[in-house]
Amino acid sequence: MYEYIKGSVEFIGPEYVVVENGGIGYKVLTPNPFAFSKFEKQAITIYVYQHVREDALALYGFISLEEKRMFEKLICVSGIGPKGALAVLASGEPQQVIQAIEQEDESFLVKFPGVGKKTARQMILDLKGKLADVVPEYFPNLFQVEEDERKASISAELDEAMLALEALGYSEREIKKISTKLKAEEMTTDQYIRKGLQLLLNG
Q: Residue 153: is its pLDDT beyond 80?
Protein backbone atom coordinates (compact mmCIF):
# COMPACT_ATOMS: atom_id res chain seq x y z
CA MET A 1 0.00 0.00 0.00
CA TYR A 2 2.78 2.44 0.91
CA GLU A 3 5.91 3.02 -1.17
CA TYR A 4 7.63 5.61 0.99
CA ILE A 5 7.08 8.21 3.70
CA LYS A 6 8.61 11.67 3.64
CA GLY A 7 9.01 13.17 7.08
CA SER A 8 11.39 13.89 9.93
CA VAL A 9 13.00 11.28 12.14
CA GLU A 10 11.75 12.14 15.64
CA PHE A 11 12.84 9.09 17.60
CA ILE A 12 15.46 6.38 17.25
CA GLY A 13 15.28 3.22 19.36
CA PRO A 14 16.96 -0.20 19.30
CA GLU A 15 14.22 -1.73 17.12
CA TYR A 16 12.52 1.10 15.28
CA VAL A 17 12.41 4.77 14.36
CA VAL A 18 9.50 7.17 14.46
CA VAL A 19 8.99 9.25 11.35
CA GLU A 20 6.61 12.20 11.65
CA ASN A 21 4.54 13.20 8.65
CA GLY A 22 1.55 15.51 8.76
CA GLY A 23 1.37 15.42 12.52
CA ILE A 24 1.35 11.61 12.62
CA GLY A 25 4.25 9.60 14.01
CA TYR A 26 4.84 6.37 12.10
CA LYS A 27 6.58 3.53 13.95
CA VAL A 28 8.92 2.01 11.39
CA LEU A 29 10.90 -1.16 12.07
CA THR A 30 14.30 -1.09 10.37
CA PRO A 31 17.36 -3.36 10.03
CA ASN A 32 19.55 -0.93 11.99
CA PRO A 33 17.65 2.05 13.47
CA PHE A 34 20.88 3.79 14.44
CA ALA A 35 21.80 4.11 10.77
CA PHE A 36 19.22 6.92 10.86
CA SER A 37 21.12 8.85 13.55
CA LYS A 38 22.57 11.25 11.01
CA PHE A 39 19.04 12.09 9.87
CA GLU A 40 17.52 12.72 13.32
CA LYS A 41 15.26 15.78 13.33
CA GLN A 42 15.81 16.09 9.58
CA ALA A 43 13.50 15.52 6.61
CA ILE A 44 14.04 12.14 5.01
CA THR A 45 12.45 9.76 2.53
CA ILE A 46 12.15 6.30 4.04
CA TYR A 47 11.04 3.45 1.80
CA VAL A 48 8.49 1.29 3.56
CA TYR A 49 6.95 -2.14 3.30
CA GLN A 50 3.60 -2.76 4.99
CA HIS A 51 3.33 -6.22 6.50
CA VAL A 52 -0.17 -7.45 7.32
CA ARG A 53 -1.23 -10.58 9.11
CA GLU A 54 -4.20 -11.55 11.27
CA ASP A 55 -2.70 -10.38 14.55
CA ALA A 56 -0.34 -7.61 13.42
CA LEU A 57 0.11 -4.63 11.14
CA ALA A 58 3.65 -3.29 10.82
CA LEU A 59 5.74 -0.93 8.72
CA TYR A 60 9.29 -1.86 7.79
CA GLY A 61 11.51 0.93 6.54
CA PHE A 62 14.74 1.26 4.60
CA ILE A 63 17.12 4.04 3.67
CA SER A 64 17.21 2.99 0.00
CA LEU A 65 14.75 1.48 -2.44
CA GLU A 66 17.29 -1.20 -3.30
CA GLU A 67 17.48 -2.29 0.35
CA LYS A 68 13.69 -2.54 0.40
CA ARG A 69 13.75 -4.71 -2.73
CA MET A 70 16.28 -7.00 -1.08
CA PHE A 71 14.01 -7.27 1.96
CA GLU A 72 11.07 -8.22 -0.26
CA LYS A 73 13.15 -10.94 -1.89
CA LEU A 74 14.27 -12.35 1.44
CA ILE A 75 10.78 -12.62 2.94
CA CYS A 76 9.69 -14.65 -0.08
CA VAL A 77 12.09 -17.39 0.98
CA SER A 78 10.44 -20.16 2.96
CA GLY A 79 11.64 -19.98 6.56
CA ILE A 80 12.46 -16.25 6.55
CA GLY A 81 9.96 -13.78 7.95
CA PRO A 82 10.27 -10.00 8.25
CA LYS A 83 12.26 -10.25 11.49
CA GLY A 84 14.71 -12.68 9.93
CA ALA A 85 15.09 -10.50 6.83
CA LEU A 86 15.87 -7.50 9.04
CA ALA A 87 18.57 -9.51 10.81
CA VAL A 88 20.18 -10.37 7.48
CA LEU A 89 20.17 -6.74 6.35
CA ALA A 90 21.25 -5.34 9.73
CA SER A 91 24.89 -6.23 9.13
CA GLY A 92 25.17 -3.26 6.82
CA GLU A 93 26.95 -5.45 4.26
CA PRO A 94 24.20 -6.79 1.96
CA GLN A 95 26.83 -7.20 -0.75
CA GLN A 96 28.33 -10.02 1.31
CA VAL A 97 24.91 -11.67 1.54
CA ILE A 98 24.44 -11.57 -2.22
CA GLN A 99 27.95 -12.87 -2.79
CA ALA A 100 27.32 -15.73 -0.36
CA ILE A 101 24.11 -16.61 -2.20
CA GLU A 102 25.77 -16.48 -5.61
CA GLN A 103 28.71 -18.58 -4.40
CA GLU A 104 26.46 -20.98 -2.44
CA ASP A 105 28.33 -20.19 0.77
CA GLU A 106 26.01 -21.79 3.33
CA SER A 107 28.56 -21.42 6.13
CA PHE A 108 28.27 -17.63 5.85
CA LEU A 109 24.48 -17.54 5.65
CA VAL A 110 23.91 -19.71 8.75
CA LYS A 111 25.67 -17.07 10.86
CA PHE A 112 22.51 -14.94 10.78
CA PRO A 113 19.97 -15.37 13.61
CA GLY A 114 17.28 -17.88 12.73
CA VAL A 115 19.03 -19.11 9.58
CA GLY A 116 19.88 -22.80 9.75
CA LYS A 117 21.31 -25.03 7.04
CA LYS A 118 17.89 -25.75 5.58
CA THR A 119 16.99 -22.06 5.32
CA ALA A 120 20.42 -21.17 3.94
CA ARG A 121 19.98 -23.78 1.22
CA GLN A 122 16.52 -22.44 0.48
CA MET A 123 17.91 -18.90 0.15
CA ILE A 124 20.39 -20.12 -2.41
CA LEU A 125 17.79 -22.12 -4.34
CA ASP A 126 15.30 -19.26 -4.41
CA LEU A 127 17.58 -16.26 -4.94
CA LYS A 128 20.74 -17.31 -6.76
CA GLY A 129 20.92 -15.55 -10.11
CA LYS A 130 17.81 -13.48 -9.35
CA LEU A 131 19.25 -10.48 -7.54
CA ALA A 132 21.26 -8.63 -10.18
CA ASP A 133 18.14 -7.04 -11.64
CA VAL A 134 16.72 -6.27 -8.20
CA VAL A 135 19.63 -4.37 -6.69
CA PRO A 136 21.89 -3.29 -9.58
CA GLU A 137 22.55 0.20 -8.24
CA TYR A 138 22.92 -0.83 -4.61
CA PHE A 139 25.67 -3.33 -5.43
CA PRO A 140 27.22 -1.94 -8.63
CA ASN A 141 30.54 -3.74 -8.33
CA LEU A 142 29.74 -7.25 -7.18
CA PHE A 143 28.61 -8.78 -10.45
CA GLN A 144 31.22 -6.82 -12.43
CA VAL A 145 33.96 -8.21 -10.18
CA GLU A 146 32.69 -11.74 -10.74
CA GLU A 147 32.62 -11.13 -14.50
CA ASP A 148 36.16 -9.74 -14.44
CA GLU A 149 37.35 -12.75 -12.45
CA ARG A 150 35.67 -15.09 -14.94
CA LYS A 151 37.34 -13.36 -17.90
CA ALA A 152 40.72 -13.42 -16.15
CA SER A 153 40.37 -17.14 -15.53
CA ILE A 154 39.51 -17.79 -19.19
CA SER A 155 42.48 -15.70 -20.31
CA ALA A 156 44.82 -17.67 -18.03
CA GLU A 157 43.50 -20.97 -19.41
CA LEU A 158 44.10 -19.78 -22.98
CA ASP A 159 47.61 -18.53 -22.18
CA GLU A 160 48.51 -21.92 -20.71
CA ALA A 161 47.20 -23.64 -23.82
CA MET A 162 49.26 -21.36 -26.10
CA LEU A 163 52.40 -22.18 -24.12
CA ALA A 164 51.64 -25.90 -24.36
CA LEU A 165 51.22 -25.70 -28.14
CA GLU A 166 54.48 -23.78 -28.40
CA ALA A 167 56.20 -26.46 -26.32
CA LEU A 168 54.92 -29.06 -28.82
CA GLY A 169 56.92 -27.31 -31.51
CA TYR A 170 54.37 -25.09 -33.27
CA SER A 171 55.65 -21.69 -34.32
CA GLU A 172 54.50 -18.39 -32.86
CA ARG A 173 53.06 -17.46 -36.27
CA GLU A 174 50.97 -20.65 -36.43
CA ILE A 175 49.69 -20.22 -32.88
CA LYS A 176 48.84 -16.56 -33.40
CA LYS A 177 46.85 -17.53 -36.48
CA ILE A 178 44.47 -19.74 -34.48
CA SER A 179 44.38 -17.66 -31.29
CA THR A 180 41.55 -15.42 -32.52
CA LYS A 181 39.28 -18.41 -33.09
CA LEU A 182 40.13 -19.84 -29.69
CA LYS A 183 39.45 -16.55 -27.89
CA ALA A 184 35.89 -16.64 -29.16
CA GLU A 185 35.14 -19.69 -26.99
CA GLU A 186 35.22 -20.38 -23.25
CA MET A 187 37.04 -23.62 -22.48
CA THR A 188 39.46 -25.26 -20.07
CA THR A 189 43.18 -25.40 -20.83
CA ASP A 190 42.87 -29.00 -22.02
CA GLN A 191 39.96 -28.12 -24.31
CA TYR A 192 41.85 -25.14 -25.73
CA ILE A 193 44.81 -27.41 -26.50
CA ARG A 194 42.64 -30.03 -28.20
CA LYS A 195 40.77 -27.39 -30.21
CA GLY A 196 44.01 -25.67 -31.10
CA LEU A 197 45.53 -28.89 -32.35
CA GLN A 198 42.47 -29.57 -34.49
CA LEU A 199 42.76 -26.12 -36.07
CA LEU A 200 46.51 -26.50 -36.64
CA LEU A 201 46.21 -29.98 -38.14
CA ASN A 202 43.35 -28.96 -40.40
CA GLY A 203 45.33 -26.04 -41.69
A: no
Structural contact between residues 68 and 40, judged by C-beta atoms closer than 8 angstroms: no
Architecture per CATH, domain 4-62, reads as: Beta Barrel (2.40)
When the pLDDT of each residue in the chain is averaged and rounded to a whole number, the result is 85
Which helix (H) or strand (E) element contains residue 53? strand 43-53
CB 185 within 8 A of CB 155: no
CATH superfamily placement of domain 66-127? 5' to 3' exonuclease, C-terminal subdomain (1.10.150.20)
Whether 105 and 99 have beta carbons less than 8 Å apart is answered as yes
Cβ atoms of residues 61 and 48 within 8 Å? yes
Q: How far apart are CA 51 and CA 89, in angstroms?
A: 17
Within its chain, how far is the Cα of 11 from the centroid?
A: 31
Radius of gyration of the chain (CA): 25
CA-to-CA distance for 18 and 23, rounded, in angstroms? Answer: 12
- The DSSP letter of residue 79 is T
Question: Within 10 Å of residue 77's Cβ, how many Cβ atoms?
Answer: 20
pTM higher than 0.90: no
Where along the chain do its domains lie? Answer: 4-62, 66-127, 143-201
Query: What b/e string do you get for 85-97 counting C-beta neighbours within 10 Å, with b at 16 or more?
Result: bbbbbbeeebeeb
